[in-house]
Design goal:
With 889 residues, the chain is of the alpha/beta class. Helix content is 37%, strand content 14%.
Length: 889
C-alpha cells in the first residue's frame, strides 16, 4: 500500500477532535470540512460537528408542515417526534464514509493514497459479510432493532439513503469495492470502525428521544425516497459555513448552537414561512388582494377548493394567473401549502410572468413577504435582482442588511436549489426533473412537495411531455401536495390521462360526450366538473379564420402584410420554425412598404424567437411587451416570431398570421388577437386569423412513395402528428368564423379526440398512424426509464440511474451548450456578450466547452465554428450557416 499517510490517527472521542476549528489540525483530528489556502489547511471542522449541523437542519425540516405531511404519507402513519428523532439519527450518519483512512488522508498534502467517502462505503453493503457485521455492531443495531419491523434490512436501507446525499442513489461496483476495503482496516493508528461507533453514539446523544416507546416505523420505499431528499437538502444547508454554520461557533455545545443556527437558516432562506403566515392579515377576500372584482374562475378557485389536483380550463383573458395566485394565497394561509412553483412552458413566458407574481407577493404579504425567485438558469432573480448583484459572501460581515439579502438568495445560486424557494416562477422542466433520474432529483422533489404546483399552458397535442407531467402529478398527490393545471382548452384524452392514477389506463369519454363537456370548467382530481360562467374580459370574440395557400412559398404573404400595415394594422406573424421566421423577415425587409413598420429592439430590426443570448433575450422580451402590450400605442407594426410569442405574453394584435399547427396551439395563438379593448383600423374591426396552409386540401404530399414523412414548416417534426394537423386543416376548410370561447371545446375535440384520429386508416396514413403509435410506446418506455422508480428501495438495482434518452433531453431543453467567448463582444442590441448558447440539435452531439477557433467579429455580428459547424450570431439570432431554407427546423 506504500507508506501510511500522515494525520490519520484520531479517534472521535479524543479531546482534540472536539476542539473548535481554530485549533491546529493534528494527527489525532477527525475532520469533516476543511478550509484550504494555497494547499494548506487554514481552518477545519470536526466530522462530529459537521454531522451535528446537518442532523440539526434535518430535524428542523421535519418539523415544517410540508415535509412532515409528506413523511407521514410516505410512512403510512402519523409520525411521532420519536420517529423523527430516529430518522435524524440516520441523517447524522450521512457522512460515516469520511471515517475511512483514505479520506482523512486528504488533509495531508503529501499523502500518497486518498479516497472519497460515498462509494467507499460499499464494503459494508456488498460481498463482505464480516465487515457488514462490524458496521451493525458499530451502529448498535441491537438497540436500533425495535425501531423498525425489519431491523437490519430497513436500517441499512435508510443508511444507504442517507449516504446517497450527494445527489443520486449510491451505486457500488464489486471490483471497485474490493479496492476500498483497505481504507477501513485498523492500522494501529486509526480504527475507522471505532470512529463510526463514536459517531453513532454522538448521534444517539443528540437525539435521546429516539429511544422513546413508540410503535415501530416501517421504512417504506416512499419514506426512503423522501428521507433521502431531505438529507440532501439538510447537507447543503448544513454545509453553509459562510452564513449559518461557521467552523468556530463559540463556547456552547455544538448541538445547542446547531439547533439554533438551523432554525435561523430555514427562516432566512425561506423554507420556514411560519413568520410570514403569522404576520399576514388573515381573512382577506379576492377583491382586497387584487383591487378588482373576481371573475367566476377566480372566485371558484379562491373558495374552499381542497382537491389535490384541479384542472382549470378558461379562455385567454379570463384571469387564470390571478386565479392561480388567489388559490395559492388561500391554501398558504390555511397551512395546506408552504410555497408556490409557477411552471411555464418557456423561459420568456416565465420571465414575463415573474414581475406580476413579485408584485402580488409584495402586496399580499407586505414587508415580511417570502423570497420570490425567477427560477430560469441564466435569468435567475431573487426579489427582482440578479444574484450576481448581491454582496459577496466574504464581505457579508460589513452590514446585516446585505447578509440577509444574500441568505434570501440561497435558492437562486444553483438551479438544483430553485425549487427550495418559497415562491418561484420558472419553466416546467425544473418541476419535471424532480421525478427523473438526474442528480438531486430527490432534493427537488421534497422542495416541490410542500408547494402549490401551478402548470400553465397545458396542451392536448403534446403527448410526450404530458406523460412526464402525469408522473409528476402522481408523485405530488401521493406526497400530499396540491397542483393546479391551467389551459385554454384541454382535450378529453389529455384531461382523462392527467387525472388517472399512474398505474391505471385512462378512460376517454366518447366524442359527443367530450364535445358536450362544460366550458369554461374546473375539474377536480376525481373527474367531477364544475361548470363556470364565461370569464373572458369583453365576453365572446368572433374570429374569422381564413386559409392562405402559401405554406411552401411564404413570399405570397408579403403583399397582404404590406396592405395591412398601410391601413395602420398591428400584425403578429407566428411561424413554426426559426428558419422560416428569419427567412420571412429578410423578405419583408426588402419590401419598401414593410420596412418602416417592422418591429425593432434598440432601433434594430429583428425577429423574436428562442435563439438569442440571455442578455439580448431580456432586452427583446421587454421591447415586445412595451410595443404590443397593454398601452403599447397605435400605428402600424409587424412582428415576426416563433412559438415564443404564443404563450403567456399579454400582447395584442389586430391581425394574426400563423403557420398551420394543431388546433389547441392555434387557439393559443389566437389568444394574442384582439386581446384588449381598443379602436381597430379599417378592415380589422373583427378579429382575423390567417393560416398558412398547403395548396392541397390534404397533407398527403408530405409522404413519399414508401409512406415516410418529409416535414414541411414544422409539420411532421415540431408537430409530429400529421393527423392532428390534417384535422385542423379540415376544420378551417375554405374559411370559418368561430366564437371564442364558446367553440373552443368543439374545435379541440375535432382535432385531438381519439375517435377522429382513428379515422386515418388508408395509405399512407395507416403507416403514419402505426409509426406514431410505435413512437408513443417508445417514448412512454423511454419516459418510464428516465423516471425514478419510487417503488424500488435503496440498494436495489432498479434504483440505479440511467443515462438520459436523447429525445427526452431535447424536449426538456437540457442540452443547450453555453460556450464562453474568449473575449466579450458587443451584441446586435448593444449588450456585453460573454457567451453564446447553442441548442443541442445544432451542436451535432458535441459536448465541447470551447469554440473550434477564435470567433470573428463582423459588421453583422459574430461568426464562429463549433463542433465542425459554422455559425453566425446577428440581429436575426443564432443561425447555422447552412440553415437557409424556409422549411428548415
Amino acid at each position: 500500500m506504500g507508506r501510511v499517510p500522515r494525520g490519520l490517527g484520531a479517534r472521535l472521542g479524543d479531546p482534540v477532535s472536539r476542539r473548535s476549528c481554530n485549533s491546529a489540525l493534528s494527527p489525532k483530528s477527525l475532520w469533516g470540512k476543511l478550509d484550504r489556502e494555497g494547499g494548506m489547511v487554514r481552518a477545519w471542522l470536526s466530522l462530529e460537528h459537521h454531522c451535528t449541523d446537518v442532523a440539526a437542519v434535518f430535524r428542523c425540516l421535519c418539523g415544517l408542515p410540508g415535509p412532515r405531511r409528506a413523511l407521514n404519507r410516505a410512512a403510512g402513519i402519523e409520525l411521532a417526534d420519536a420517529h423523527l428523532d430516529r430518522l435524524s439519527v440516520f441523517a447524522f450518519l450521512h457522512d460515516i464514509g469520511k471515517c475511512n483512512r483514505g479520506f482523512q488522508a486528504k488533509a495531508d498534502p503529501d499523502a500518497v493514497r486518498t479516497a472519497g467517502h460515498v462509494r467507499e462505503t460499499g464494503v459494508f453493503f456488498s460481498y463482505d459479510e464480516r465487515l457488514q457485521q462490524k458496521l451493525r455492531a458499530a451502529l448498535d443495531f441491537q438497540t436500533i432493532g425495535p425501531w423498525f419491523p425489519k431491523a437490519d434490512e430497513e436500517g441499512l436501507r435508510l443508511l444507504l439513503a442517507s449516504i446517497s446525499h450527494h445527489g443520486k442513489p449510491v451505486e457500488f461496483q464489486e471490483t471497485e469495492t474490493h479496492l476500498h476495503r483497505v481504507f477501513w482496516a485498523d492500522d494501529g493508528v486509526r480504527d475507522p470502525i471505532a470512529d463510526i461507533a463514536h459517531l453513532a453514539r454522538a448521534a444517539r446523544a443528540m437525539f435521546p428521544g429516539a429511544d422513546a416507546t413508540v410503535p415501530p416505523m416501517s421504512a417504506t420505499p416512499a419514506l426512503q425516497h423522501r428521507f433521502a431528499g431531505l438529507v440532501m437538502l439538510a447537507d447543503w444547508l448544513g454545509s453553509h459555513a459562510e452564513s449559518f454554520f461557521p467552523f468556530v461557533h463559540g463556547n456552547a455545545p455544538r448541538a445547542e448552537f446547531a439547533r439554533s443556527a438551523a432554525a435561523r437558516a430555514l427562516v432566512a432562506v425561506g423554507l420556514d414561512v411560519g413568520k410570514t403566515r403569522r404576520s399576514t392579515k388573515a381573512g382577506m377576500d379576492f377583491s382586497s388582494l387584487f383591487s378588482f372584482q373576481p371573475t367566476p374562475l377566480q372566485q371558484a378557485l379562491f373558495e374552499n377548493t381542497d382537491s389535490p389536483i384541479v384542472i382549470a380550463e378558461s379562455d385567454t383573458g379570463s384571469g387564470k394567473t390571478e386565479a392561480a395566485l388567489g388559490h395559492f394565497y388561500r391554501l398558504f394561509m390555511e397551512g395546506k401549502v408552504d410555497g408556490l412553483y409557477f411552471a411555464l412552458p418557456t423561459r420568456v413566458a416565465a420571465s414575463e410572468l415573474y414581475e406580476r407574481v413579485l408584485v402580488f407577493v409584495r402586496q399580499a404579504f407586505g414587508a415580511a413577504h417570502p423570497p420570490v425567485l425567477l427560477a430560469v438558469p441564466g435569468y435567475a432573480q431573487m426579489d427582482g435582482e440578479p444574484p450576481e448583484w448581491l454582496p459577496e459572501a466574504s464581505r457579508l460581515w460589513q452590514e446585516n442588511v446585505q447578509a440577509c439579502r444574500h441568505e434570501r438568495a440561497w435558492a437562486a445560486e444553483r438551479p438544483k436549489r430553485f425549487l427550495a424557494a418559497p415562491v418561484a416562477v420558472g419553466t416546467i422542466d425544473q418541476a419535471l426533473l424532480s421525478v427523473m433520474q438526474v442528480n438531486h432529483a430527490h432534493l427537488r422533489a421534497v422542495c416541490l412537495e410542500r408547494s402549490l404546483l401551478v402548470v400553465d399552458e397545458v396542451h392536448a397535442s403534446d403527448t410526450y411531455m404530458r406523460g412526464i407531467l402525469r408522473a409528476l402529478l402522481h408523485h405530488h398527490r401521493e406526497a400530499g401536495g396540491h397542483a393546479l393545471l391551467l389551459s385554454a382548452t384541454l382535450g378529453s384524452a389529455a384531461r382523462s390521462e392527467l387525472l388517472t392514477h399512474l398505474d391505471a389506463v385512462a378512460s376517454v369519454p366518447d366524442l359527443p360526450s367530450s364535445i358536450a363537456y362544460p366550458y369554461p370548467v374546473m375539474t377536480d382530481h376525481s373527474g367531477e366538473a364544475r361548470p363556470l360562467p364565461d370569464a373572458a374580459v369583453g365576453g365572446s370574440k368572433q374570429v374569422a379564420i381564413e386559409p392562405l395557400a402559401c405554406l411552401a412559398d411564404q413570399v405570397e404573404v408579403i403583399g397582404p402584410l404590406a396592405d395591412a400595415v398601410a391601413s395602420g394594422a398591428r400584425v403578429l406573424v407566428i411561424l413554426n420554425t426559426v428558419a422560416r421566421v428569419i427567412w420571412l423577415l429578410r423578405a419583408a425587409e426588402e419590401h419598401p412598404g414593410l420596412r418602416a413598420a417592422l418591429f425593432r429592439c434598440e432601433g434594430v430590426i429583428c425577429p423574436h424567437h428562442g435563439r438569442f443570448s440571455r442578455i439580448d433575450r431580456q432586452r427583446l422580451d421587454k421591447a415586445v411587451t412595451q410595443k404590443l402590450g397593454k398601452g403599447g400605442g397605435d400605428g402600424p407594426l409587424l412582428l415576426i416570431g416563433s412559438q415564443t410569442l404564443e404563450q403567456s405574453l399579454d400582447i395584442d394584435a389586430d391581425w394574426l398570421v400563423t403557420d398551420l399547427c394543431p388546433m389547441d396551439v392555434l387557439l393559443q395563438r389566437i389568444g394574442r388577437l384582439h386581446r384588449h379593448q381598443r379602436v381597430r383600423p379599417p378592415e380589422f374591426e373583427q378579429a382575423r386569423c390567417t393560416v398558412l396552409v398547403p395548396n392541397t386540401s390534404t397533407l398527403t404530399h408530405l409522404f413519399d412513395e414508401r409512406g415516410r414523412v418529409h416535414p414541411e414548416a414544422g409539420l411532421g417534426s415540431v408537430y409530429p402528428d400529421l393527423r392532428i394537423a390534417q384535422l385542423t386543416r379540415e376544420v378551417i376548410g375554405e374559411g370559418v368564423t368561430v366564437s371564442i370561447p364558446e367553440d373552443n371545446r368543439r374545435l379541440v375535440e375535432a382535432a385531438t379526440h381519439p375517435a377522429n384520429l382513428d379515422r386515418f386508416r388508408d395509405a399512407p396514413w395507416e403507416r403514419h398512424r402505426n409509426e406514431l403509435l410505435a413512437l408513443t410506446v417508445a417514448h412512454g418506455q423511454a419516459a418510464r426509464m428516465t423516471l425514478i422508480q419510487e417503488t424500488a428501495e435503496f440498494g436495489d438495482d432498479a434504483l440505479r440511474f440511467h443515462t438520459f434518452d436523447e429525445r427526452l433531453v431535447t424536449r426538456l431543453g437540457l442540452e443547450d451548450r453555453r460556450i464562453s467567448l474568449p473575449v466579450p463582444v458587443r451584441s446586435p442590441f448593444g449588450q456585453r456578450l460573454d457567451e453564446v448558447a447553442i441548442p443541442g440539435w445544432m451542436a451535432r452531439g458535441s459536448d465541447a466547452s470551447d469554440l473550434d477557433s477564435p470567433p470573428t467579429v463582423t459588421d453583422e455580428g459574430l461568426r464562429f465554428r463549433y463542433a465542425g459547424g459554422s455559425f453566425r450570431y446577428t440581429r436575426f439570432g443564432l443561425e447555422r450557416e447552412d440553415e437557409c431554407e424556409p422549411s428548415g427546423r
